[in-house]
Amino acid sequence: MGPSPKDAQRYSTRNPRREVTFEYILLRGFNDSLADAQDLVRYVSAVPRGRAYVSNFHSRRPAMASCV
After folding, report:
1. 3-class DSSP assignment, residue 51
2. Cβ pair 27, 57 in contact under 8 A
3. Cα distances (angstroms) measured from residue 10 to each of 2, 18, 42, 62
4. Both ends of the chain: CA-CA distance in Å?
5. d(CA 10, CA 14)
6. Dist. CA 19–CA 11, nearest whole Å
7. Rg of the chain on CA atoms, in Å
8. Among residues 20, 21, 1, 23, which one has the least CA distance to residue 11?
9. CB 45 within 8 A of CB 9
10. pTM above 0.70?
11. Are 43 and 51 spatial neighbours (Cβ–Cβ below 8 Å)?
């Protein structure tokens, strides 16, 4: 996993005019539940000026179709 919320918080404190953006990719059956969404909100809310960019995973490969 990447930086912790504390790392992002330190960054946003040192750079107060910058937003901290988290990219969150949804994978069906892996991280797309309501509980996962609530965890994401808690994670991003812990960071001043934190934002989340959420997108679905799309694959053109048939082997990955179960993730869509």
Report:
1. strand
2. yes
3. 14, 12, 17, 42
4. 22
5. 6
6. 10
7. 14
8. 20
9. no
10. no
11. no
